[in-house]
Amino acid sequence: MTVLRVVSQSAEATADGAASANNSAAAAAGGTAHVYAGGSRAVNCRLDSSTLSSAGCAPVTQSPRAPEAQDDLLAALDATIARARRSELYRERLAGVRVRTLADVAAIPLTTRADLQQAGVNGTRAAPLAAICHYGESSGTSGASNSVWLTPGDLDRSAQAMRAAHPDVFAPGRVILNRFPFMAAPAHLMQLIAQSGGGVAVPAGNINWDVPFPRALELAQRTGACVLAALPLEPVVLGALARARGLDPARDLGFDALFLGGAPLPPALQARLARDWGARVIELYGSTETMLLGTSCTAGALHLETTLAHCEVIVPETGEPAPPGGEGRLVVTTLSLEGSPLVRFDTGDVVRQSRVPCRCGSLRPSLTVLGRADERLDLAGHRLYPYELIDAGAAAADALASAIFFIAVLPDRVLVRIEGLQAVADPVAAFRARLPGVVVEVEEVGPNELLDVEMLSRSPRVYKPIVLADWRRPGRKVLTVVEGMMEWPRPGWAESRRWLTRKLRTARRRRRLAREVRLAARAER
Ligand SMILES: [Zn+2]
Question: Is 273 in the same domain as 139?
Answer without folding.
Answer: yes
